[in-house]
Design brief:
5-stranded mixed beta sheet; single chain; HTH-like_dom; Putative transposase OrfB; alpha/beta; 15% strand; globular; 2 domains
Length: 242
């Protein structure tokens, strides 16, 4: 599954046909499309491209509209986003959810779990609220079952004034900042370290996210780190004039 995840990061628009060809070409593996679909579901990945909506939400799983098209995000806590990614280990895998502030790119809360349920997403959101001291004006997620569940929606509605926004199905561009976070995390840390256990993964991922928030500048926010942008601090230079 790690191999599949790496290919998805390199070719995010590829579905089962494209990934099957790559696996055969690069690894000599002949994997059936049915098995690939099952592995992609386990890894929480899908081809990132617009496609027709083929099913209606079930009872209690309302799909909310995407609210960010044309919106100018100008301040912290205006928009948060959340997403889940797959973290491979030599003997199994786990899932990571993160809650990010769109304006500053700061990761406000995160949780690791061996099961992809709603509970660990709620813990990450509550951690983000505790960090920020408030909820966002808009909370944006994909249409995954965790974020359309009754428990998640109930949690959102407990915060007065919070608006729920959901990406179009398969549209990575609707949540582009957190998709970039996953790419950086995996290629700069997870794939280099090959963590053995969920506990070890949690320690390593937590340390990387701390460095991301406090040390990693972004050109799109004036060469500031996420923490500097979130707290309204000007970019600091490590070099001082003599």
């Amino acid at each position: 599954m790690r191999m599949l995840d790496e290919l998805h990061l390199r070719f995010p628009t590829f579905g089962t046909r494209g990934l099957r060809r790559l696996l055969k070409r690069e690894q000599g593996l002949n994997v059936g499309r049915k098995r690939l679909r099952r592995l992609m579901r386990l890894a929480h990945i899908s081809a990132l491209r617009p496609r027709p909506r083929t099913s209606a939400p079930g009872k209690g799983h309302r799909i909310y509209p995407y609210l960010l098209r044309g919106v100018d995000v100008t301040r912290p806590n205006q928009v948060w986003c959340a997403d889940i990614t797959y973290i491979p280990m030599p003997r199994g895998y786990c899932y990571l959810v993160a809650v990010m502030d769109w304006y500053s790119r700061k990761v406000l809360g995160w949780e690791l779990s061996t099961t992809m349920d709603t509970a660990f997403c709620l813990r990450a959101f509550r951690s983000a609220v505790a960090t920020a001291g408030r909820a966002p004006e808009i909370m944006n997620t994909d249409q995954g079952s965790q974020f359309t569940s009754t428990d998640w929606i109930r949690e959102m509605k407990q915060h007065e004034g919070l608006k729920i926004s959901m990406d179009g199905t398969g549209r990575w561009v609707d949540n582009v900042f957190i998709e970039r976070l996953w790419w950086s995390l995996k290629y700069e840390d997870v794939y280099l370290k090959s963590y053995e256990t969920p506990r070890e993964t949690g320690r390593g991922v937590g340390a990387w996210l701390e460095r991301y928030n406090t040390e990693r500048p972004h050109s799109s926010i004036g060469d500031r780190t996420p923490d500097e942008a979130y707290f309204g601090i000007e970019a600091e230079s490590k070099w001082r004039a003599a």
